[in-house]
Amino acid sequence: MKPIHIIGGGLAGSEAAWQVARCGVPVILHEMRPAQSTPAHQTEKLAELVCSNSFRSDDAELNAVGLLHEEMRRSGSLIMSAADANQVPAGSALAVDREGFSEMVTARINHESLISIVCEEIKQLTLEDWGNAIIATGPLTSTALSEAISSFVGQNSLAFFDAIAPIIHTESIDMNIAWFQSRYDKEGPGGSGADYINCPLDKEQYLAFIDALLAGETMEFHDWELNTPYFEGCLPIEVMAERGAETPRHGPMKPVGLTNTHDPRTKPYAVVQLRQDNKLGTLYNMVGFQTKLRYGEQTRVFRMIPGLEAAVFARLGGIHRNTYLNSPKLLNETLRLNMSGIHSLRFAGQITGVEGYVESAAIGLLAGQFAASERACIKISVPPPTTALGALLAHITIGHLEGSPESPSFQPMNINFGLFPPVEVPRPIGRVPKRERSQARKRAFTSRALTDLSLWLGSNRQPAE
Question: Which residue ranges form the domains of the chain, and what is each CATH number?
Answer without folding.
Answer: 4-157+325-459 (3.50.50.60), 164-319 (2.40.30.260)
